[in-house]
């Protein structure tokens, strides 16, 4: 059945993209985009060839094999030797060919002509574009210091070159997508175990998944391993205000009141400690602060948690006992996206603490330390700029920001206030903050505050639409990338890299080439004085077998230790132990143990808005993909049946959803699969850019509606601190 579906969707894809027509006619195809490849193919004989690549439709980087005929990539197959993804490509991976041949791709450098966001562009030659970039960067540096230029880069193997460029140019102001994603979770686990763990889902006997949706939000190998483990009898308990696909397949699902997970976790700790269900020797030996924790959790009994979470007290107590009985092969799944509440770091600390009580660290079925991959860094000495300010523009607003990622939300506030110093230039690579940062109107203001803004993207994203200069990037199948080390929990620690499968189409150029050229013009050429090939050789210098394995198998595995890594290692925390009680927090005036405070109250006939994934969509970047677009239509607003009745809303109605920062109109989806006090919509619709031709005018933008809270410890976005009203606009 699954196989047939896959065949069908591929056939649909060939139809949709015009590839069948092109191949049958044997002439210039429907898609102008095929021209360069077909020109190349004119000399070839219709034979198929195959080349290893690495999927780039999301950050998981699954190994794949491109099947190429006459210079045209016809199909992507999974690389069976790539065990991190258990030899699979998901729907989005299969649709990678449609990204390559997307007629909406950016083709040439474009310079803004009209007002910002007006959509008047002039095609300019690359020489001119690069000269202009260099000239503007020099101007900004002279007027505002190098820190007056901001650099933002998304998840990509070449993003490290954006960081390198920013550093040698002299700006501390770099934001990654991570402060919109997972930093509060990383903060919490780092501050408990001294590092961010991987979950040994495959060997776990009991998994509590709270605020994660592994059967739709795919993370490899966890998503596939969860299915395999459940087939072998692993119990899965899901806490989610929505009836997700993961909830549907779980043994137990609890529609928890959003923002109350900490109460649940502290109650688990209460039962485990009071009933002495933990391994006393292990806890004494490996952890710090059990006595303080015992005292701390006394007030958080299951009855207290039941009131807060809306989960029966007897279920909470039973789950605690079952979980402890399965320990150490049991876990509170750490989750990934933690950009939800203003106390998310403390919420995730409560997850980490229960894991510690299960003594599952470094154990089969528990939380695993990072394995050794063996890739080396390529160091350089960045120049020093005397005129620079002391710190990042978003510094000192929260006690424990990640210095290399910053906080997008706080950086944006600093840009708008001009304090502590002005930022007037913005370089954006492979990230789309207009679609992914909360409060879109404010991000538009931020773009408007810039004297010069450059965006490098494959498509005219909403962020590109606001830029001064838009530069076309090659897709992953057309470029060479550095090597990358990947962790696949128990599955593997491996290295992958990319080489171009087909030549870069149109006038697209990799960001490495762009930065190298501009660095040369700014007399920083010595920091980019290498090719990607040479860079890779340096990265692989400690792994003599890697180059061969990469050529033969498309992946190199380091047979490094999986469990017991900490037998001879010291925890990187202040106490050198696993910190139930965090003494560093205490010194900084932060609660050393998570103290529960209820989420803001949702008024009657108002709703908390939550975000969530679809298996067919990657953030805001694949909605306009011709294949995936057929599978995921415009977004709808999930509204509970009883809530809809209260508001007089009928199935099929168009509703207005409005927060204090923005609004949108979309069709309603009335369902019992969401709590009465919560609404949900899929992200990435309601685009501003008409050049996303399949989705322009479809659905509503979630980023326009989300309010911009942030985590009070690390500055990660807090997307779920958003309360909305829902009003009927157009009857069905
Ligand atoms: N197909 C697909 N896979 C992806 C991605 C993608 O875009 N598409 N993106 C990747 C990325 S970048 C990430 S970060 C991960 C994200 O992976 P996840 O974090 O697993 O994904 P989300 O869909 O954000 O899931 C969060 C879930 O939390 C629920 N929720 C909201 N508030 C609360 C709450 O207070 N308590 C609890 N218990 N639940 C709550 C939401 O309803 C939602 O179902 O997925 C990755 N994988
Ligand atoms: N409303 C809402 N906001 C969210 C989330 C949510 O679920 N809902 N999730 C949050 C999370 S967990 C994350 S990780 C962030 C993600 O936020 P972003 O980093 O902004 O991720 P994407 O939306 O995938 O945007 C990626 C951009 O890269 C472009 N692109 C794709 N391939 C290439 C390429 O090969 N080269 C170049 N140069 N560009 C390319 C795409 O066209 C797109 O414009 O969003 C966060 N914000
Ligand atoms: S999970 Fe899917 S989209 Fe992500 S890298 Fe793997 S195949 Fe590609
Ligand atoms: Mo993310």
Write the layout of secondary structure elements.
Blueprint: H1 2-17, H2 19-25, H3 35-41, E1 48-54, E2 63-69, E3 72-78, H4 91-94, H5 96-100, E4 110-112, E5 121-123, H6 126-144, E6 149-153, H7 159-169, E7 174-176, H8 183-193, E8 198-199, E9 206-210, H9 222-231, E10 235-239, H10 245-249, E11 252-254, H11 261-274, H12 280-286, E12 287-288, H13 290-297, H14 302-309, H15 313-326, E13 330-332, H16 344-357, E14 367-368, H17 408-417, E15 425-429, H18 433-436, H19 440-448, E16 452-457, H20 462-465, E17 469-472, E18 481-487, E19 493-498, H21 511-521, H22 532-539, H23 546-553, E20 556-557, E21 578-579, H24 583-587, E22 607-610, H25 626-631, E23 636-640, H26 641-647, E24 654-658, E25 663-671, E26 678-680, H27 702-705, E27 709-710, E28 717-718, E29 723-730
Parallel strand pairs: 6-7, 6-15, 9-10, 9-13, 10-11, 12-21, 15-16, 16-17, 22-26, 23-25
Antiparallel strand pairs: 1-2, 2-3, 4-5, 4-17, 8-14, 18-19, 19-20, 22-29, 24-25, 24-29, 27-28
Helix pairs in contact: 6-21, 7-21, 8-16, 11-14, 11-15, 11-16, 14-15, 17-19
């Amino acid at each position: 059945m699954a196989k047939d579906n896959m065949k069908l969707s591929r056939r649909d894809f060939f139809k949709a993209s015009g590839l069948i027509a092109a191949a049958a006619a044997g002439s210039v195809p429907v898609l102008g985009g095929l021209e360069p490849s077909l020109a190349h193919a004119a000399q070839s004989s219709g034979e198929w060839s195959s080349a290893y690549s690495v999927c780039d439709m999301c950050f998981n980087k699954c190994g794949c094999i491109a099947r190429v005929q006459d210079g045209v990539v016809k199909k992507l197959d999974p690389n069976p030797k790539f065990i991190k993804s258990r030899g699979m490509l998901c729907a989005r991976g299969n649709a990678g060919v449609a990204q390559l041949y997307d007629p909406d791709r950016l083709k040439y450098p474009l310079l803004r002509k009209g007002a910002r966001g007006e959509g008047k562009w002039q095609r300019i030659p690359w020489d001119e574009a690069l000269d202009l970039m260099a000239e503007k960067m020099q101007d900004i540096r002279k007027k505002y210091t190098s820190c007056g230029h901001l650099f933002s880069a998304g998840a990509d193997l070449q993003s490290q070159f954006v960081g390198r460029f920013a550093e040698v140019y002299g700006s501390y102001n770099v934001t990654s997508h991570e402060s919109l994603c997972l930093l509060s979770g990383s903060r919490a686990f780092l501050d408990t175990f001294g590092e961010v763990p991987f979950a040994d889902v495959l060997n776990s006997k009991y998994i509590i998944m709270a605020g994660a949706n592994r059967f739709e939000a795919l993370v490899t190998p966890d998503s596939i391993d969860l299915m395999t483990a459940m087939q072998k009898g692993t119990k899965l308990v899901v806490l989610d205000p929505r009836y997700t696909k993961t909830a549907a397949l779980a043994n137990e699902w609890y529609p928890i009141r959003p923002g109350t997970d900490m109460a649940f976790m502290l109650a688990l700790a209460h039962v485990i400690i009071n009933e002495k269900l933990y391994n006393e020797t292990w806890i004494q030996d490996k952890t710090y602060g059990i006595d303080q924790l015992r005292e701390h959790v006394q007030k958080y009994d299951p009855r207290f948690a039941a009131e807060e979470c809306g989960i029966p007290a007897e279920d909470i107590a039973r789950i605690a006992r079952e979980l402890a009985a399965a320990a150490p092969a049991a876990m509170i799944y750490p989750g990934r996206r933690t950009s939800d509440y203003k106390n998310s770091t403390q919420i995730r600390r409560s997850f980490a603490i229960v894991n510690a009580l299960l003594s599952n660290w470094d154990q089969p079925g528990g939380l695993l330390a990072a394995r050794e991959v063996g890739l080396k860094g390529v160091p350089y000495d960045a120049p020093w700029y005397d005129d620079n300010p002391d710190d990042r523009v978003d510094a000192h607003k929260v006690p424990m920001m990640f210095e290399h990622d910053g906080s997008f939300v706080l950086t944006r506030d600093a840009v708008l206030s001009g304090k502590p110093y002005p930022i007037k230039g913005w370089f954006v690579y492979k990230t789309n903050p207009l679609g992914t940062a909360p409060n879109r109107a404010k991000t538009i203001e931020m773009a408007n505050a810039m004297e010069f803004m450059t965006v490098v993207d494959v498509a005219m994203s909403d962020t590109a639409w606001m830029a001064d200069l838009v530069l076309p990037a090659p897709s992953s199948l057309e470029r060479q990338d550095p090597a990358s080390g990947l962790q696949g929990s128990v599955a593997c620690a491996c290295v992958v890299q990319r080489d171009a499968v087909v030549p870069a189409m149109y006038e697209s150029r990799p960001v490495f080439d762009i930065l190298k050229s501009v660095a040369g013009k700014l007399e920083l050429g010595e920091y980019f004085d290498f090719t990607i090939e040479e860079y890779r050789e340096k990265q692989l210098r400690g792994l003599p077998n890697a180059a061969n394995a990469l050529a033969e198998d498309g992946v190199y595995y380091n047979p490094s230790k999986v469990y017991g890594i900490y037998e001879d290692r010291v925890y990187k925390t202040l106490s050198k132990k696993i910190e139930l009680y965090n003494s560093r927090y205490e010194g900084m005036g932060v609660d050393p143990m998570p103290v529960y405070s209820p989420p803001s109250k949702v008024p009657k006939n108002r709703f908390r808005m939550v975000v969530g994934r679809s298996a067919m969509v990657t953030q805001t970047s694949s909605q306009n993909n011709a294949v995936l677009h057929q599978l995921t239509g415009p977004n709808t607003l999930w509204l509970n049946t009883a809530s809809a009745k209260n508001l007089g809303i009928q199935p099929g109605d168009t509703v207005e959803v409005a927060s204090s920062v923005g609004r949108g109109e979309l069709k309603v989806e009335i369902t019992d699969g969401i709590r009465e006090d919560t609404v949900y919509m899929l992200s990435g619709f309601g685009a501003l850019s008409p050049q996303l031709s399949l989705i322009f005018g479809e659905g509503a933008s979630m980023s326009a509606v989300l309010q911009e809270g942030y985590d009070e410890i690390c500055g990660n976005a807090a997307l779920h601190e958003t309360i909305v009203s829902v009003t009927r606009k157009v009857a069905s």
